[in-house]
Amino acid sequence: RKNPMNELLQNPVFQMACQQYDATADFLQIPQDERERCKWPKRLITVAVPVRMDDGRVEVFAGHRVQHHLTLGPTKGGLRYSPEVSIGEVAALAIWMSWKCALVNLPFGGAKGGVRCDPRQLSLREMEQLTRRYTAEMIPFIGTHTDVMAPDMGTNEQVMAWMMDTYSSHAGHSVPGIVTGKPVLLGGSQGRKEATGRGVAFLVNRAVEHLKIAADFRVIIQGFGNVGFYAAASLRKYGARVTGISDYYSAIYNEKGIDLEAASEHIQKHHSLMGFQGGDEISNAELLLQECEVLIPAAIERVIDKHNAGKIKCRILAEAANGPTTFEADAILKERADIFVIPDILCNSGGVIVSYFEWVQDLQNFFWSEVEVYDRLYRILQTVFDLVMKEAKMHQIDHRTAALAIGIKRVASAKKLRGLFP
Ligand code: NAD
């Protein structure tokens, strides 16, 4: 097996999170010894997750959880099932969660979890066994006031329900606040499933108004999963025409607009977009280069890179995925006055904000209506959008640096106030 520390340092996603942090720390002029303290994850946990597969074999999966900082409250962050999961990727995602939670003023540090597996190849039974064993291995390190998980790529409400059940069985009573993004019946929040996508759509609409883009604007979305689907459906209500969508297997383009419900039904039936007849099939790489007003990467990291950053033809780049734009691509985008970036830690923050609402509701056993959830969510998103715009204008900096600076400064200030335990 590889040395996990080397794996962390050599991972390109981790390196990217560090480059972004270092550049923002330079801008904020954070003193050297405070910098290191803010940057390094507090806890890196790797566990072996043995699972009896349907064919009788025992397969051992690698499971990770990274808790970045515990200065402002429990850590919070999603759990990802994907063949690409590594400790470096998980650590980078945990770091971004920290800046995101601080940017939107939540009492959380960042965390992320991941199991290296291909969820598309697992049966439902194998997925349940994997989830329960991963949760059991994590019991010493998680808790409603320690670390709270949520869905991310490859996981969903059902996975959260199994996690909650495993943890609760161990505790001897129901502990709904151990995870967010669970079914409403088990203590989930109204609106959580749709929150990230609807938040993305709300912010895109703010940018559309800001730039005075006319109705019937064209939207292209990479990744038609939870976030991509709800962003698309919600944007249509704001007057958008979704001209391109994709998933892991295929990308579809239709200048006249894609029938979202038909696409979703096709995926339910065939588990992929492949073969969907509602447009022309193109490659994922080509999809990113089609002309549109709004481009939304909503799948994986590092898809906008130095090779395509100069070629994308959108007016708004709304980063629904975490870390979709590499550090090198960012330098190119900064030179392109024609592109308005809604950076990831702002763009997809609707998810963690409603997760926070869910945690609060679970701790109080007092549940809110969907109207209350979205009223509170949109007020926060509006405030933070305005704050990022103001910070960028005041210091003549790009939106990403502005958003990161607000988040990082809050974490650094909190660490300074709490002091250094000897
Ligand atoms: P999901 O598993 O529901 O959907 C992911 C989609 O991306 C699927 O359509 C999948 O086929 C596609 N995809 C995967 N690999 C791809 C590839 N290499 N090329 C093109 N498409 C690919 O996941 P999700 O919950 O919608 O998350 C999507 C992104 O949004 C992730 O970056 C995640 O970290 C981020 N995010 C999710 C939430 C949330 O609440 N779910 C919150 C904040 C951020």
What attributes characterize this protein structure?
single chain; 422 residues; alpha/beta; seven-stranded mixed beta sheet; 17% strand
Share of residues in strands: 15-25%
- Provide the structure class: alpha/beta
Order of SSEs: HHHEEEHEHEHHEHEEHEHEEHEHHHH
Small molecules (ligands, ions, cofactors) in the structure: nicotinamide-adenine-dinucleotide
From the spread of the alpha carbons, the general shape counts as: globular
Trace the largest sheet across and list its strands: 9-8-7-6-10-11-12
Approximate helicity band:
40-55%
- Please give the number of β-strands: 12
Mean pLDDT: 97
Number of helical elements: 15
Largest sheet: 7 strands, mixed
Oligomeric category? single chain
Radius of gyration: 20 Å
Distance between the amino and carboxyl termini: 35 Å
Instruction: State the low-pLDDT regions, or none.
Output: none
Folded structure, characterized:
By secondary structure, the chain is an alpha/beta fold. It contains 15 helices and twelve strands. Strands 9-8-7-6-10-11-12 form a seven-stranded mixed beta sheet. The protein starts with a helix and ends with a helix. The protein binds nicotinamide-adenine-dinucleotide. Nicotinamide-adenine-dinucleotide (NAD) binds next to helix 8.
